[in-house]
Amino acid sequence: xxxxxxxxDGVKGRHREIVGCSIGGGRIEIVEVDDLAVRFGGDYPTLVxxxxxxxxxxxxxxxxxxxxxINIGAMQLYRAARGEDAVMVIECDKEIPEDIxxxxxxxxxxxxxxxxxxx
Length: 119
Fold this sequence. Notes:
About 15% of the residues lie in helices and about 50% in strands. The protein has helices spanning about 55-65, 100-105, and strands at about 5-10, 15-25, 25-35, 35-40, 45-50, 70-80, 85-90, 110-115. The strands form 2 sheets. It has a 4-stranded antiparallel β-sheet with strand order 1-2-3-4, with no helix packed on it. A hairpin with a 5-residue loop joins strand 1 and strand 2 (about 15-25). The longest helix has 11 residues, at about 55-65. The chain starts with a strand and ends with a strand. About 15% of the residues are buried.
């Protein structure tokens, strides 16, 4: 009863589905992004990066963010099964500049990047 599913269609043809629930005290928790189970609060600017489940992608993304002077406050990794699509949920200390998202999407092995801003 305390759950909502957001179906978002962007002007550029992007489609996202996000499921969140109330956890009391005016707080929410995101529990699903594009049919993959996740768990984060949305209290910080957050990158949701869908990627291939291959070695080195976490290193590639975190190195890229470090080079852009973006500090990671928290990070969780999820996957449906070994070798299938995986998701990195990265909560950052500050808002992400607009030009960072296309650059992240251009990294080898990255399928899609969704940015959840606090603005």
